[in-house]
Specification:
- The chain has 419 residues and is an alpha+beta fold.
- The chain has two domains: 140 residues, Rossmann fold; 246 residues, Phosphatase 2c, domain 1.
- Helices cover 36% and strands 24% of the residues.
- It is built from nine helices and 18 strands.
- The longest helix is centred in the middle third of the chain and has 49 residues.
- The chain is elongated and about 110 Å long.
Length: 419
Amino acid sequence: MPSGQFAGKKGKRAMRVLIADDDPISRRLLERTLQHWGYEVTAARDGAEAWRFFQERDYPLVISDWVMPGMDGLELVRRIRASSRPGYVYILLLAAASHRREVVEGMNAGADDFVSKPFDRDELRVRLRAGQRVIDLEQKLVEQNRDLRERNADMEADLRMACEVQQALLPQAKPSFPSCVPPERSRLGFAERYLPNGAVGGDFFDVLSLSDTKAGIFICDVMGHGVRAALVTATVRALLETLRVHADEPELLLADMNRDMQAIFGQASVPVFLSAFYATMDTLTGEFRYANAGHPAPRILRRQDSEVLVLPMRAGQPGPPLGVRNQATYSAASFTLYPSDLVVLYTDGVYEQVGPNMEQFGEKRVDEVLSRCLHSCANRIFDELLAEVKRFAQGRSFCDDVCLLGMEVRAIGGNGGPI
């Protein structure tokens, strides 16, 4: 029940009112009038007594005479406004005359309205109803804000859980190739950076062990971010597991994933689509076979030649993003990797970050950082790239999710070794 109200006869609510008036006749008349109208009234003989009553109990409505011995009406108003009482207090001042100077002085002190003394019953009733509407509206806002806080707390709890679930969906430990060796002896080494724009994000990556000699690497970027995008990434994670039958054939895996995405989200009120890149790496032959669904082209850091290569697309451009075109097909391409090569996959949140004059960081700057750090380890390269993007943004937070996935080739066939 709202503060300052109580349930009277037949459940009718009555507003609690505090009166302060040193004139016993005026005070008694005012008290009886308000009680007749259904208010619960407490009458004080002066400002000091009214202030004591106010401190002991909540009164959303206060009617005070202006001129009283000791603490006058203005001082009472100032004390009420300076108090820490929760909820708004609507204050009416009783004045013998309504001169402009008095109105201004009373308003500056914190009064809400004035009633001339001796009061007119109809005028007083109208002004009290106006005050009650203000208090009712304020109470409604308080209740709505409380509901919003509770809902926000529930949403924050849900987001925390969603974040924990999403983090659990990301690969916690990368496989070794072959599986019997520790990570530092694996023919392939992996590094990643995952920075969601909010509590949860729409980027996802995974590293699959297809055999002791072959790996699958996947990265995707769902349109948008937040809970909706995170739900799509969870679906992608599940589809990736169910489609492992085509994990050796990147073009078929993306085609099947597109078909299933259409079946799941085709009737959604908001379009759902994502860019994706999937590749297999054969550590015996060095063949890197891949297909691209509207995703940024990966970079190859060819350290033995000190150059950064853009992974070429079949027919010069990637296939359509997943979820856009029904029955879309994708083409696979191959590229030969050598020991010491580093494959860098990333989402567009890396290069679409804006800086001064809303200029984007751009893929050209990405390539410049990769070229400058060419011979560093993947982890150091990623840290330097993200630091450079942050410097460019000059304090602006990332405007999209950011994901980086690196695959270092340590050995091919029987040649080379860990680096």
